[in-house]
Every structure is written in structure tokens, then in C-alpha cells.
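Run log, item B.
One chain of 165 residues. Sequence copied directly from the ordering sheet:
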Amino acid sequence: MTKEHIYKLLREENIEFELTEHEPLFSMDEDKECALPHPESMAKNLFVRDKKKRCIALITVKGDKRVDLNAFSLRQGLKRLSFSTAEMLDEIMHLKPGSVTPFGLLSKEAERVEFYFDEDFMGGIIGIHPCDNTATVWMKTDDLLQLLAARGHHAHITKIDRKED
């Protein structure tokens, strides 16, 4: 999906959103350097898998969090998780590194991806890329979760702790 497809889908679903166009952002450090209107609502998205690729997951957390994947795996009752490859990300979600987003769950191949969502976003807004890291879409968290659920992706809403340095 292109970002234009995402914008069209949001409009067709009558979902209110705010759009910020910007230079390509590849990391949360770059996000901090960019003048974003709601930096406290920016999401970090981790595309992960277990060793045998039986569990593939997207973890969406508040952007200021560092996630301890070992602790997360234990808490969720999963095998040990690690970051997936760029090839797997492209094959399943049709995304490139730096553009990972819950909107990638809309691809047909992503039906096997488990979606874990940070409860700290609940009741507010979220900033995510529209399948392209040259823009950020700001929308109500509830609208995002309802949009994905209507297409078969129900989120595991969970507490995701910050990793201690």
C-alpha cells in the first residue's frame, strides 16, 4: 500500500486524521530532530519473529520506550523474539525498514502477524507512518484499532515496560 492508499482508506472510512509531511525518518532519534506536532504520541514499531518463524509479531509502543524483547517474550508466553529481516518485512508487510507501521497489517500476507499494542496509547492519539517514512499520520488510537479489527487484526493490548539501561 502507498501512503495515498492509506489516506484514501482513512477518508473512505470517515476517520479524522492529521498529516505531517517531512524528510524521511529512519529512527526515533531522527524523529526527535524533526518538528512534529505531537511527539509524545509518536509510535515505535518493532517487526519481530521467533527463531523458527512460527511467531511473527508487530509490537507498537510509545516512541520513548526501549523494549526488552526477552522480558516481553516471557510476559506474553512466547518463544524468544528477535528482530526480523528486511526481506521478511517486505515479503509479509510490503514495507521497508524505517517505514514499519500498523498499516502494514492491511496486506493480505500479514494475516499471520500477531499485533501487540502498548496500553499507554489507549484513549489518546497515535502518530504512525502511512507505509512511507516521509509522512506521519496522527489519529485517534481507537480509530486505528477499529480499522484494523474490521479487517481481522485484533490487537493484544498490553503493558509494555521500558527497558532499563
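Observations after the first pass:
- Helices lie at 3-12, 28-33, 69-76, 86-93, 141-149.
- The chain has one domain: 3-158.
Flagged for discussion on Thursday.
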